[in-house]
Please model this.
Amino acid sequence: MDGVPRVPEQRRPGSEEPAALRFSVLGPVRAWLGDALLPAGSPQQRALLAALLLRDGRTATAAELIDALWGDEPPSQALAAVRTYASRLRKALGTEVLVSESGGYAIRSLGEGALDHTRAQELAGLADKARAGGDLPRARGLLRDALALWDGEPLASVPGPYAETQRARLEEWRLQLLESRLDMDLEQGCHAEAVSELTALTAAHPLRERLRELLMLALYRSGRQAEALAVFADTRRLLADELGVDPRAGLKDLQQRILQADPGLAEPSAPAAEPAAAPVRPAQLPATVTDFTGRASFVQELGDVLAAASLDEGRVMAVSALAGIGGVGKTTLAVHVAHQARGAFPDGQLYVDLQGAGSRAAEPEAVLGAFLRALGTADTAIPDSLEERSALYRSVLDGRRVLVLLDNARDAAQVRPLLPGTEGCAALVTSRTRMVGLAGAHLVDLDVMSPEEALQLFTKIVGRERVASEREAALDVVAACGFLPLAIRIAASRLAARRTWTVSVLAAKLADERRRLDELQAGDLAVKATFELGYGQLEPAQARAFRLLGLADGPDISLAAAAALLDLPAEDTEDLLESLVDTSLLESAAPGRYRYHDLVRLYARACAERDEQPPTERAAAMSRLLDFYLATAAGVYALERPGDRLVDHLEPTRTEGLAFADRKASWDWLYSEAVPLLACVRQSATGPTLRRAIDLLWAAVDLAESGANSKEYEAAAAALRDAARAARDARAEGRAGVVLSNALLFSGVFDQAYREAQQALRFAEASDDPLPCCWAANILGSIAFYQKRYTDAEGYFSRAVEEFRGCGDLAGSASPLCNLSRLHLATGRADSAVVLAGQGTEIYETLGHSLRVANGRYALGMALGKSGRHADATSQLEEALRVFRDSRQRLWEGMALCRLAEVDLDARDPGRAAGNAEMALTVLRGIGGEWRRGNVLTVLGKSLSGIGQSGRAQVCWREALDIYEKLDSPEASEVRALLTPVAAA
Model:
């Protein structure tokens, strides 16, 4: 500890009171003077300090200290070394703290609570007294405070036999305290909350029978008797296999009591009341890596910021933002620090990957929704707008101590709405860019590892024996990796998996690739050379799969889609992908789904551009993927709509799609593949794949109609329309216009939808493309109908019926027939409306359409309702509602509920109408557009007025009027009329 500054007076500048010394041994051995961290010196010097601190002021002789540091094999100059360490510590701590007496040393004159170990003992003793006195809530709190003093492994990285013995003792003590606290948790009736913690603890300490006993009791009290008994069976088997013994008597007795449903095991009938109801405590942090290495100064720096944020009342919420190139270890460091700080944030830890490095970063609205749900907020209580969600999020966090880890952020604008707003909370942010726009943030620039840290990480992964014999070669390897943690991890993992290689073989492979060494130093693409190491070890088939799969834009890819892209059987594809997972070049997102890390995807694409021969194979692979999606989506469409001619008018494909045994399987595929499918559409909006991309979007129309992916679908449709226009392809522009106008129709954007449909009709007519003409006429009629231009609407619907029939598309003609029914109904022709809806429904039933029959019943129910046949109308609409729900058609589900409410009003049942309208409003949240929301609000207002809640009715009508006026919609006059009597009164 040469060069350690002397602190003779131990005073803060400008302070009359001396700054207090503090020490920790329940983690790294550290010393503080006030808030300033004092250097503790070498590992052996920290071992000496720990040995003195743990003697509670008693003197340790030189011989005892030598034995503590080196055991039976001390160095020849051991005594001199002890004296040197003691002298350096005395300079740092002061002569009145580290004293020399009787040929030994002692630490004296420490203030109250100066040593975390002593404080933990005091808290544990107070907890015992509180428990003996029947104050379980206080006892639990005291034990939580005691356990929070542990900061990772006790005496971390301190060498010597004494430290090893004390480490084991302190860990055993921690587990005993933890068992006591969990025991009290169960006494307090917190068994459900304890199950997850006990499950993790029994996994970490499988032979600890007390933890198993507590887990059995917690499961039993949670109504999970079978699982509780399974824990006993697992324990008995494990003890027999590992130790050759039976479970102890207490565990056997508990098993018998569970089997007998002993009433004495029931939840305590009247547990002592907690001071306050415990809120939901999320624990979302990813697992920290077991071989975390180095970064000690950063860990200390960030840990101190978090500790200060949790302890200092009145302090503003703390934000620490880590920045650095991809692969430098930002996430690893942040997760490690967050885990160490968990005890300071007892109300929970939130985590999200913001995907800022990708082309489509996570939206703050969606992240806030997930956070609010994790904090216990019901879905129905989560507002729609970003501002409202952010405000509610801050309110929920007020008074709590929660740590938020925002990983892989794009920029400060993405982060700001996600920050807590009050003291006691803290946020850790990682990003590739410095968050200079975050006012007051503690900014940390993370650079590559030092050579020593890099070698330590490499050694932990590869193994000490292999590295020790080839140290120079190992140094060459980490230097070739640019000391980048991600690069080192991948290289070391590859070497560890090949036991026949030496470190020199690995070093030679890196040295032979001079271009790779150059790329290792190329800024943000520095990781490419490390990936090259793994890529170079792949078999040709693996390498081809690695290159081509990286071409697809979606966040992940299914096994079936990957097989199509690679033009291989599914079994061979799975073998290849799983082998890539084993090499860490690919991740298994879920069974049957795969994804790349964002940097690895960039590298895979670079490999494809460089290595794929012939170059046309890249385009061919993406063409096969597009064909797969188109063929499968067409199959889903045809299965749902037997006899519909759309599939006969789509572009031909050379790659087969999936076949499904039933509708549910087809829907599962469509919705699970929605994001990758739409990504493929946008990626294919050019050249020879443009027309197929448009047809794919057309065949996947249910993604827009259901409301599940309406915004993404609409954006893709607009991109295709623009691409078709740029390509001067009239046929493509006509179809893209139909797809876009249809999506806009479902979103309630009628004026733009009308313009797009008119243009689509012109292009379809010019290119002699009949089916888009049919669809465009039906869409134009629907828009005119919604805008109450009934003459125009009737003309378009009649034309659509004739043109569908002219194309031989009987199924297609049913839609404008049902639309004509609604038009007749709106113009006072209720009888003919019933007939037309019946004709459309009959067509759907004859052809075996399930979902479309529901659309027919929807129109028929409306017509019957206005004809006074309320029971028949309700029956038709309820059957339609059932199908819409089964088919995940949220838009139609919401509108069916609204129509049921209208029938209820006509049947003079406003109470039931109000219930249906409320459900419609909930289902349609975020989908269907503002115009439809205005419709539902109008109906809800009428229902509320009918049950005497005129105040709520006015609020609904005023909101509906505001919507209609902004849209310049004719419905505004009806709502004004509803409000006029209220205003007059």
